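## retry 2 of 3
previous attempt timed out at serialization; input unchanged, resubmitting
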Amino acid sequence: MKKSVAITLGVVIVGAGSWVGATWYTGKRIEESSQRHLAEANEKLAKLTPLFGLRIDQLKYERSLFSTQARYGLSLVKNDKSPDAMPAGMIEFDAVVEHGPFPKSALASGALAPKLAYVHAEMAKTDNLKEVFELTKGVSPLISDATVSYSGITSSTSKIAPVKVTHEGTSVDFSGMVVTGEFDRALQGVTGHGVMDTLTIDASKSSDPAKVSIAGMTIDANSRVGKFGVSIGDSDLKIKRIDVTRPEDDIKLSLDNFGYGVKLSEDDKSINVQAAYQTGDIIVNDVALGNGQAVIKLAKLDGQAVKQLSDTYNQLMRQYMASTEDEGLKDEQIQVLLDSAGKLLAGNPSFSIDPISWKTGKGESKLNFTLDLANPADVKNLTPQEIAVQAIKRIDATLIISKPMVQDLMTQYAVKKEGMAADKAAEEAEQNVRQMSGMAEMFNVGKNEGDNIVGKFTFADGMGDLNGKKIPADELFSGLLGAAGMDSMDEETEEEPMPGMEEPAVSDTPVAGLLQDFNLDTVSSMLDDMGYTVKKSDGDEGPVLVLDTGTTGASDLRLEFLCNDFTEKCLDLVVTATYKTKKPMALKAINTWNQEYRWTRAYLDDKNQAVLQMDMNAEGGIGKENLQILLNTFISIAEDFGTLSKGTAAK
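## retry succeeded, writing output
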């Protein structure tokens, strides 16, 4: 019996000794590694921005057998680039480190397996943070508890304290926030989940009255460093409800179920990115606007090129912000950027919107867009237009606009915002939608298909197609680049000629297919190609082209050029159809016409003849095909107006 007791007592003593020894060893191991981890953290913090540095200092470290008491300070480090107003001082944190293998707080929380340490840390109350602690009513603004395993996995729970404060008519009510997460040191992986119940900023009693409320916000993150050295994973933000009011601007907005998420994934060669936005119901000033979503994707991005682009870009930005650019190094870095961009394009990446949509109870409007890219050969020797043609492998876009949806939104707005009677608002909305439909057809940006206006554009193999109308690549990109001011990027700057040595004026159409003004010969030739017979004459402000009236029913059909005497350029063109009728056209019919066809104007001239006119302007450039569409559309509706003028004589 005595022998058995002795053996048991020996086992207990050995076990206790082993536990004490393991605890002592763990505490020593933590102390030895803490300095290394601190140095690593400071090295990373120093690279965050060249304007200032961030530094963590160990202010106290007192190790006992079962725990360690420590204090750390976080401060901003100024340099010659730092702003003068940068705050001084230090934010201090107290930490209690319970040594493993069985920290008592870890055991109390249900973690029975051996652990390296349990760490409780909280922001310390110092003179620098006195006002912050007053806002949190003496509670530490930030408290964190973490369990560290021997394998390097840290599980933590952090709490941001609630705040209620009022200052100069503005109050802030913050419910606080709880963030739980896990860090895997070996995989450089992070998961996190944050929850905030409410945040209300009420400035309704201030000089600029407004109120913003956010309720039910959650943040989730799950990432790791991928094979290309880029963080891969998911992140999401969700908000249950947002309310905004600004009485002085008559704004009252509410938004339910807002969400935003990003997903980064990878395969053997590429990185893929998807960003998704969504909203629940949006109500503005009691008008229900509906709900929407947007999904944007980048696919087949060469992983190594993405990493190189990111590193080089960040390096350039740090040099720029610190004003330490080395021109020789900068040239090398820009060449690296160009090479990486070429490698990125060589993988045939794609960009897509799939889709952007907006939905109400009356219908849904949406846009789908896909752009496939390729790597142009010999970029340095190509013009911007040639680069665009070779870089774009394919475009496929479809826009659908729901006419009932648009009409319903217009009606709601007119009734609730402008106080219009429901029947009148509906009638006016119907007219506006009909006008919009007509304009879409007129400019060939969409076709009317039942309750929808549908626009389709494709581009492949050097040819574009807009709603069935073919557009060659040269014409498409010359117009786009010309409008963007990129058509002359590669042209060498010529010296200004000496007085008396001026060269003759160059062509008025420097970009193919884009008219910079209305040139008489160009417009005449275009009309001839369109099949219209014209006669030239002189007008008060420029040349006049008189057209055969054909089937319009007009007595006179003409184009008048309005020219600047100083520049001799004609930037305005007016097309006019005049109708002789036995009796003057009814003014009511003219008013109705003007309401429905706002891109033209109708009136009675001093001879009581009905007149239909449309103005066009070439300032900034106008596409030749657009001008053809405008003229053809005007002549087409001139036939309708001619029929109307004969059937609606004044009583």
